[in-house]
Design a protein that fits this description.
Helix content: 40-55%
Number of domains: 1
Shape: globular
Number of strands: 7
Structural class: alpha+beta
Order of helices and strands: EHHHEEHHHEHEHEE
Strand content: 15-25%
Bound molecules: coenzyme A
Radius of gyration: 17 Å
CATH architecture: 3-Layer(aba) Sandwich
Number of helices: 8
C-alpha cells in the first residue's frame, strides 16, 4: 500500500512532473508508444512548464513515502485564468513557436501536425470567456497509472481547493474530454458540474471528440 503525502512543488520535481504529464496526457492515457507526439519537451512546454516556472506557488505533488519519496502525481493551476492566458502567450508563445519552426517541424513531424491541428480547432480558447469571472481559477491534475484510483487524485484536489479558497478566489473550472472516462466520474464525485460542451478538439483522428468544461463554486 503506498504511503502518500501531499506537499508543495519544488524545482527538483520538474522531470518527474514532465514524465507523469507525458504518461497520462493522451485523454488520460499514456502517450508513450502511440507515435502521436514524440517531442516530449514540447509537450511539457504546452501543458506543464508554464505553471512549474511561473505559478510555482499553486503547484502541489503527491509523494510516495514507501517508495523512496517518489513523485507519483501532481496538481497545477492558476488563480486567475485570464491573466494566465496572457502570461502564457507572452512567456511561452515564443519558445513554442521557435521550437516548432526550427526543431519539431523537422525532427518530429507527427508532433508538429498535432499542434497545427489543435491551433486550427481551438478558436474559442482565444475569445474573451465570461466563465473566468465566476470561476477564475483552473487546474490540471495527473496521477501515474499504477497509482490511480486509490485516493491520491482526491487528496491533491482537496489540497488545491483549500489553497484556492484561502486565496479568496470564488470558483474553479477545468477542461477535459468526453473520451476521458476516468476524469469525468472523478470530477463529478468531487462536486464539479458540467457547464459546457465544445467542439474544440486537441487530438487528430479521434472521432466524436468533445471538450467538456466542468466547474465548482467554492
Ligand atoms: C482523473 C484522476 C486524476 C483521478 O485520480 P485518482 O487518484 O485515480 O482518483 P481517486 O482514487 O481519488 O478517485 C476518486 C473517484 O474518481 C472516480 N474514478 C477514479 N478513477 C476511476 C476510474 N479508473 N474509472 C472510473 N472512475 C474513476 C471514482 O468516482 C472515484 O471514487 P471511488 O473510489 O469511490 O470509485 C486520475 O485517474 C488520472 O490522473 N488520470 C489520468 C490523467 C487525467 O485524466 N487527468 C485529468 C485530465 S482533465
Amino acid at each position: 500500500m503506498p504511503d502518500i503525502y501531499i506537499r508543495p512543488y519544488q524545482h527538483a520535481d520538474e522531470q518527474s512532473v514532465l514524465q507523469i504529464c507525458y504518461r497520462t496526457g493522451f485523454m488520460g492515457q499514456d502517450l508513450s508508444g502511440t507515435n502521436r507526439f514524440n517531442d516530449r519537451k514540447l509537450f511539457g512546454y504546452l501543458f506543464c512548464l508554464f505553471y512549474l516556472r511561473y505559478e510555482t506557488e499553486h503547484c502541489f505533488v503527491a509523494v510516495d513515502r514507501s517508495n523512496g519519496d517518489k513523485v507519483v502525481g501532481y496538481i497545477l493551476g492558476t488563480l486567475d485564468t485570464r491573466n494566465q492566458n496572457r502570461q502564457f502567450a507572452w512567456k511561452m508563445g515564443w519558445r513554442i513557436a521557435l521550437r516548432l519552426l526550427f526543431y519539431t517541424g523537422w525532427r518530429y513531424t507527427e508532433s508538429f501536425r498535432e499542434v497545427i491541428f489543435f491551433l486550427k480547432g481551438a478558436r474559442s480558447k482565444i475569445e474573451p470567456n465570461p466563465l473566468y469571472k465566476v470561476y477564475p481559477a483552473h487546474l490540471h491534475i495527473n496521477v501515474l497509472p499504477e497509482y490511480q484510483h486509490c485516493g491520491i487524485g482526491s487528496k491533491l484536489l482537496d489540497r488545491f481547493e483549500q489553497h484556492v479558497r484561502k486565496s479568496g478566489v470564488a470558483g474553479i473550472h477545468l477542461s477535459t474530454s468526453n473520451r476521458n472516462l476516468k476524469a469525468i466520474p472523478f470530477y463529478r464525485k468531487k462536486g464539479y458540474d458540467l457547464l459546457l460542451e465544445k467542439e474544440d478538439t486537441f487530438w487528430s483522428n479521434v472521432p466524436d471528440y468533445k471538450t467538456l468544461v466542468f466547474a465548482k463554486k467554492l
